[in-house]
Amino acid sequence: MNNFSYTPVSTAKEATNIRKDKKEAAFIAGGTTLLDLMKANVEQHTQLVDINLLPFRGIQETADGLRIGALERMSDVGENTLVTQQYPAVAEALLLSASPQLRNMASIGGNLLQRTRCGYFRDPAFPCNKRNPGSGCPAQQGDNRNLAILGTSEACIATNAGDLAVALVALDAVVTLENAKGKQRRVPLLEFHLLPGTTPQRETVIEPDELIVAVTVPAAAHARKSHYVKVRDRASYAFALVSAAVGLDVQGGQIRAARIALGGVGTKPWRAQEAEKLLVGKAPSAESFRAAAAAAVRGAQPREHNRFKVEMAQKTVVQALEELMA
What residue stretches are annotated with the FAD-binding PCMH-type domain (predicted)? Predict the structure, then answer.
């Protein structure tokens, strides 16, 4: 780890102006991902800007739905009564993330910005297009068991590691960003993370001088009836091999609205909109669930070691939908 300065700030303007003027500076809240990357020399920052005093707090019901401040801790959101009762997939995704100790420290905004756990990215001894554009992607022919099968490119097959983002994408969440001029913009989370394409080093639409202020999840029947399932190598503190967030609005024995998103299989949280369309107007049944699951992985491009994810993802979608309707 290189030497760095530490600067606590009390206003968003102060924080964003530092980042605007010094591109090598980084914001820190919980620091649960950032410090790991710095210790491994994957990221090297000369200044850390502590944003914990900013007023980006609160878990509340508003006219737009559920509003979560970006500096709220994962554990507090996951255990909040409003979240568990009205947005259960969000609570389940949070409480299946990391360890209790990390959830007590990690912020919601930081969680959405966490970087991939691809071993080649996290080891500077290897080339990696995310760290050094144009250097190559050894994962293509190397150990790719945990990596993506959807949204990949010749430049990168690294998996987005998040749990929370999968549930939020499924439930049409919106991220509010604020820049150094104090101007805010709202970005659907579906558009927040970027596909790698030829520029895998750019992972989100957030600009260098922007901060995440809050996340808003619209109130909806499919949000109230939602569920998150995570499949992993061990029962706790492991990243998803495959995960699925689902939500259904069922009235009169028919599905009026459906939401499906996948984790552990995409280079970004993967919304399966084609699969959702197949469910609308159908009765909730094993047959309709299997058809939707097949559509959810259509276009997958597995590599040698992660071909199992195609079938596992389908089974996980079916499991999530069946458990939701049980």
Answer: 1-222
For the chain, domain boundaries: 221-325
Whether 140 and 200 have beta carbons less than 8 Å apart is answered as no
Contact 298, 276 (CB under 8 A): no
- Spell out the residues 6+ positions from residue 271 whose beta carbon is closer than 8 angstroms to its own: 169, 170, 190, 260, 261
Q: In the numeric block, which tokens belong to residue 107?
A: 């912020």
The tokens describing 288, both together, are 């309709």
CATH architecture assigned to 221-325: 2-Layer Sandwich (3.30)
61 burial (CB, 10 Å; 0-12 / 13-18 / 19+) is exposed
The pLDDT tens digits for 215-266 are: 999 999 999 999 999 999 998 889 999 999 999 999 999 999 999 999 999 9
What are the CA-CA distances from residue 156 to residues 124, 265, 306 (Å)?
A: 16, 13, 15
What letter would DSSP give residue 150?
A: B
